[in-house]
Amino acid sequence: MATTEALDSEISDLYARISTLQAHRANLASILLSQPHLQPRLEQRPVLHERNRRNAAKIVEKQAKRNIENVYRACAGVTAYKVKDPDPYAVDNGNILGVRIEVSIGGKFVETYHVLFNRPNAQHKNMLKIHKHTIPPCIPLQPLANKWLPITRKDAETTTEQNLLKFGRSLRKELVSWHLRLEAVEKLRVEAGLENKSAEREEERAESTIGKVLNTFVSDDEDEEDEERTRRRRDGPVRITDIEADTAVREITVTWSDGRAAVVKVAKDGQIEKAAVRFEDGARDSALVRKAVGRIEGLIQRLTA
Amino acid sequence: MAPNTTTTVPDYKNIPHSHRLPVTHREVQRTFNKLSRQSLISLAHQWLSKKNRDFCRPYLLSDRDADDEDEEEAYTPAQSFEELQEVYKELAARKGGKREIQDRILEGDWRTGISMYQLATAEIQYLLDHPNSLRWTAKRLAKIPNAKSAVLDMEVTNDSEHLPRFQAQTFMSNLARELTPLMKAHYLLTKIKTLPMTILRVYIHDSPYSSEASLAATTASPDSARSVFFIWPNGSPFVYSSIANHLGQIIGDDGKHLRDIVQQAIPKAFSRPSARYQLASTNFTTKSLEALLTYRGPGRGNAAAGGWSIFQDHSFSQNALDFITTQRERGDAHEKSGADKEASTGAKPGPGRPKRTLDDTESPEAKRRREVAEGRFGSSAKPNDGQGLERVEVRIDDPFPAIPNTSAQQEVDTSDLNPGPTSRNRKGRPSVLDRSLEEVEELQNEEAWVPDVRVVFRGSHVFAGIRQLVEQGVIDGEKMPGWMTGEAGVTIGAVKEGRIRTKKDHIPGV
């Protein structure tokens, strides 16, 4: 048994080593290919087969294109490109203008979103219409499009003005602020010490429950009130048991172990505008409500202070 | 069953979680028969946990009456909740049949009845175990345009909201207010952990009473489905609805009618003053919850289906800091080379052109077809991706292609044969695809003959099937219209000029 295990671990070690080396090799290759003046040098040197030279030139060119593309994408944040719709029945011969929005947080590019436009109207050639996109529904794409990219009716004389630049700018703002809010909630969880615990709890709960029942309050039986009180937990110091946010991170719910719960409303820029904190018996905690209002980042500090 | 001492009068209450159905009740039997051993044990654990005990009281020793003592019992009642929890933990640890657990629950620990809460959680458990067991229709909560606030609706400000806000408590009380005068119902609203969604189960009790006794008495026809499911994917304007029918159970008109009542109440429960909602159809029906979450979910896939899936799964755009152009594993290399080419040439090939013509080793034809399929379908429509649509139906609104040697005589004949599509006597219910009056008018204004042709694709995964046909060369992948790749993201629609008709000004997928 021991030998097979040892062999298995050795094999997996080797695989890991191979993949690191391959990654390293790829890295070195792209560094090499990005050398300045590589193209002319390739042309000057004599080679055995002309085909090899052509291949090399192709690879170098590919790398150069990628470098330029990445630099633009990384620096501009919003970039445009052209693609072709493969659908033979696509409008405007399948010409598609793509807009790519990069979201970077904490020195990393976390996500790329695309909006693809076509030109459905033969008379008003400049009019763009959103054809496909990868924007999640919690981002107000339709209102933004209504505002900046109004669609001209087919029979209209003049084209209504569209502003793609402003559309891209405001869409990017929405996307970035959403990601920043997501990030902020993650940080709040870490601050409240929920990160590891929640993972554990998740495992433990995954076996036993399907989810959180939201309408336990519907119960009309009045005699249950007493039990409710007895089973209330009073053990240990009060701590935050859960921080939950909706998908758009416009509402965050904080739950304490003594049954207190706070719901705060977050504006898109991360400002907490309104808050409601209730004790388990339903009474409001106005002191905490006042503390909660402010930036999202310091919420836990303010609430626990 | 506990004797019902209170008088039964019609009232305006919901059915509480703790009301019990006798274990012999048809719904109970059916639901429990379907569940697996593991699910039953996990449910029992759930019911015995502290917060649920009020709704799922088992039969304990203390509940036993003195005169029952001499009765023969297959299962001795437990002393306490803790003891029961231990019992189920032991059962979970060892192997055994499913029947053992089912009998223990129904004849032992919960012999006095299964509460509404238990039944609801059991049904939801089954739904999560078998996500393809029900047929779902996706709807969208759309704001009813308001003349006064039209300008306000358009504005995107720092604190504007474009999605209906889902607040469980408010929603439930609104829904109950809408429904209780019409019927009694039990509601269970659950936020699911494993999937990004919230499930509402409504058990419809078609009776003026909300007492336990009236629940047990089956007044409606025994075979009609009693419960309705609604799912809200988190952070999206969609609602999926379904009637929970057991296998082979027919959804009667009653069931449909009751579902419609609940369905109509839902947008009302969401509405607030100055923000009224209605349910709009999204032309999407499927059995697969996973497909629903992809096509009508909270993520990025809603408006990038079919070949456009390369835009959502990062195969079109690498990370902006990823400079490595060499060394990719094979599957990846295809897409990447396409992306690179498009960067180099002015007009990119995008999703759809054969990506590589180099290294043709074996069967160039098959390889080419595979690449065409790759281009048209991108990373979607893989046979085992769990996102199969079982039925896709389209109506072709394009004029019938002219036959080269048609004589004038034949033309006359065809116009006689086509006395207007709506007057045709189709059997059964009117279909969603029946042409509306405006559409008929529009078509009659055209010169050409436009017959009412409908194409239905059926199978376990329609678009994976079409992809395979393209790869086999049965369908010409390059001439195939885009809706056959599933990129329109509908399961029912009308095709005009080779494209699925869409509403004007409406952006797909939001």
TrEMBL record, chain A:
Signal peptide: none annotated. One of its GO terms (cellular component) is nucleus. It is found in: Chromosome, Centromere; Nucleus. Keywords: Centromere, Chromosome, Nucleus. The keyword Magnesium does not apply. Pfam families: CENP-O (PF09496). It comes from the Eukaryota. Its main location: nucleus. InterPro entries: CENP-O (IPR018464). The keyword Nucleus applies. PANTHER family: CENTROMERE PROTEIN O, INNER KINETOCHORE SUBUNIT MAL2. Belongs to the CENP-O/MCM21 family. This is Cenp-O kinetochore centromere component. The lineage of its organism: Eukaryota, Fungi, Dikarya, Ascomycota, Pezizomycotina.
From TrEMBL, chain B:
InterPro entries: Chl4/mis15/CENP-N. GO terms for biological process: CENP-A containing chromatin assembly; chromosome segregation. Residues 327-343, 356-374, 388-398 have a biased composition (Basic and acidic residues). Residues 404-423 have a biased composition (Polar residues). Pfam families: CENP-N (PF05238). Residues 327-433 are annotated as: Disordered. This is CHL4-domain-containing protein. It comes from Trematosphaeria pertusa.
